[in-house]
Specification:
single chain; Beta-galactosidase, Chain A, domain 5; ten-stranded antiparallel beta sheet; globular; eight-stranded parallel beta sheet; TIM Barrel; binds (2R,3S,4R,5S)-2-(hydroxymethyl)piperidine-3,4,5-triol; alpha+beta
Amino acid sequence: MGISTDHSGRRFLMSAGGMSYAFELAENDLPINLYWGGKLECADDLPGIAELQFYQHRTNRQSENTRQEYPAFHGEFYSECALKAEYSDGVRSTRLRYEGHTRKKENECEILTLSFADALHPLRLRLFYRVWNGLELIDRWSEIENGSDSFIRLENFASACWQLPAPTADWRLTHLAGRWAKEATVTRIPVTQGRFVMESRTGLSGPFAVPFFALDDGTATELAGEVFFGALQWSGNWRICVERGAWDATTVTGGINPFDCRIELKPGETFATPVFSGGWSREGHSGMSRVLHRYQLRHLLPPAIAAKPLPLIFNSWGCINIHVNEANIRHAGTLAAKVGAELFVIDDGWQKALGDWIPDPAKFPDGLGPVIENARSLGMEFGLWVEPESFELKSDLYRAHPDWAMRYPGVEPFERCRADVDRTSVMLNLARGDVADYLYHALHKLVEETGIRYLKLDMNCFFSSPGYGRVPEAEQGRIWIDYVRNLHRIFGRLSADFPELLMENCAGGAGRADLAMTRFFGRMNRSDNQDALDMLKLHYGFTQVNLPRLAGGACHISDLMYDINRRRTPLQFQAFCGMLGSLAIGKDLTRCSEAELDEIRSYGEFYKKIRHITQFGDFYRLASPYEKSRAVFEYVAPDRSEAAVFVLGASQQFGGTLPYFKIPGLAPEKRYEMTIYGGKTEEKRILSGRGAATVGVRVDLFGDFDGRILHFQYQ
Ligand code: DGJ
C-alpha cells in the first residue's frame, strides 16, 4: 500500500487499493510512466523505459519524448504540452531537471511531491501524487513557481498527463456530452490518431461536457473489463485532450482551459493547478463509477452531509413558479407536510431582486418569518433558492455598485434577459476579492438570520464580457480562474460555518457537475428535465461520475415541467425515477385529490424506507436505456444485508417478457427475502445471493411506464 521507491531512488511505485501506478526518472531526469493498472507487489514486474518505446528503431531522443508524466515544451516535443512557458529573455522552452522528492503520510492517503527546476531559468515545478488507501484512485496536480525577478508567461499549465498502457489495443473513449435538459449523454468513440478535445469555455464546467474521461479497450461492459478513467476537479473552463500519437501511444492531458487566459506569473508567484483524479477498475464502467462514488462519499462531501440521508423535499418551482407569496406558500406547506415532506424549499421569486437577497415586501410583507415558522410547526425544515452570481439592473446592489459587473473596460456589461421570469441581469464579477467577500457575507447573513437548513445555488447564465471593468493590469484573462477560486472559497467558507447546511449545486440543471463542487454541495440538480422517460438516460449518464444520491432537482413528482416532450407519465413511475437519487416533489398539491395525496405520501414513505440503501450503498447499472426501452439500476447496502433493484420500463411490446437480470453484489451464502413493489400486489420470494447473481431474477412489466422495485433483505 502507498508509495515506494527502488534502490536507485528513481523508480516510483504507488498502490492505491487494487491499482498500481509507476514511473521512473530517465537518464535525462524526466519522469517517464511505466505502468498504470492492476496491483503489483514488486517493482521487478515493471517494464523498463526502453521496452516501452513504440518505434522499433529506438533512439535516445524518442525516449525523451514519449510517456512523460508532465511534458514541458522543449526540443523535439510536438505533442500536447502540460507546461509551456515563455521567459523574459525570449526563450520559450523548458528543460526540467529533477531536484528531489518528499513523501508525506496523512490519515487516509500518502502524498508524493517531486521537484524540478528549469535548467536555464529560476522556474520551479512541483508534481503531486495523492495516493488513497483502499481506493483505486490517485489525485494529481502541479505547482509552477516563478523564482525570477521578471514575469514568466504560461501558455499551457495542465494539472496532469495520464499515459495509457502500451498500445495492446485500440482504445475506446467514453465521455459525457450534452446541453440543458439533455445533460451527461454517454458517448463512446474509438480513439484514432490525432487529438480529441473535450472542454468548457462557458465559465462554468458544463453543461456541454463533463470534465471526465474513461478509456477501455472496447470490450469493457458495465460489470467487467478494465477501465482507466479520470475526473478534473474544476468548476470553470477546463480542457481534456485525448491524443493518440504516430506510434499509437495514447495520452490524456487535462487541466484549466488556457483559452483566452495566458498567465503572467509575477516574480515570486506560485500557480497551483486543480486536482485531476485518475483511477482504474477491472469491474467495468459500473466498477469505475463505484470508485468515484466512494471517493465522493468518503473524501469529498462535507462529513456531516455525507453522514445523513437526504430529506424528502417539496420545492415550489414546479407548481408556483415565481409567483410565490405568503398565502400560497402557507397553503403549499400544509399539503407538503401532509404528503410527508421533510424539507420545504421556496425556489425563485421570494427575493426582492437578484442581488437584493431580502424578501420581496409585496409578496412577504412580514418577511419570511411566518412561512418559516409555519413550515417548522408542520415538522419540516426550511430552505431557500438563490442565484447570487448575477444582479438585476433594477436591484439596489446594481445601483450602488455598477462597477461590480463583469465587463470590459469602457464597455457596458452584457445584459441577459430571461423572458420566462421577465428579468434582466448582468453577471457579478466574483473574480474581484471585494465582490466575493460581499457575497460571502450576504449569504452568511441570510443563512444565519433565517436559520435555513438548505440553500439552493442556481446559476442561469454563462460568462459574458469577461473583464474586470478596470483598465487592465496585464491579465484580464485571469478572470476565468480567479472567479472559480473565489466561488470555491465562498462556498467552502459557508460549508465550514454551517456544517449541517445542505447546499444544492443547481446551476440551471447540472451546469457545474464537477467534483470540485461536491466538496461543498450535498445535492445537485441532475437536470431540469423531469420527463420520467428521459430521466432514465439522465441517471445513467449522471451516475457515471456522480454519487447517485446527489441526483436532485426541484420536482421529480411534478406536472408537465417546462413542457419538455409533453409526455404524461404515471405518478408511480415519476416517484421511482426520483428515488434513484434524492426525491423531490413539485406537483401542484392543491389540485390533487385525496387519493392522489395518499398515493404521493406512500411513495414518500417508501423512499424513506429504502434511502439508507440508495444513498449509502454500492451502485450498479444493470441494463442500459441506451440499448433497450428500459433501465435497471441496483443499490447494495455497504454490509450487503439489503439491496434495492429498480426495473423501469418505458414500453412493453409484442406481449413479450423481460429477460432475467443477474443481480451482483449480494452475499452469495446468505438467503434473502425479495419483496417486489410496484405491481398490483406485493410479491415475495426467498433466494440466495448466489442464486440472484447466477440465475438472476425476472419481473413482469405491462404497458408503458411500468416499474418495480425489488427490495432484498437478509431472511
Ligand atoms: C433553473 C433551475 O434549474 C430551476 O430548478 C429553478 O430553480 C429555476 N432556475 C428558477 O429560476
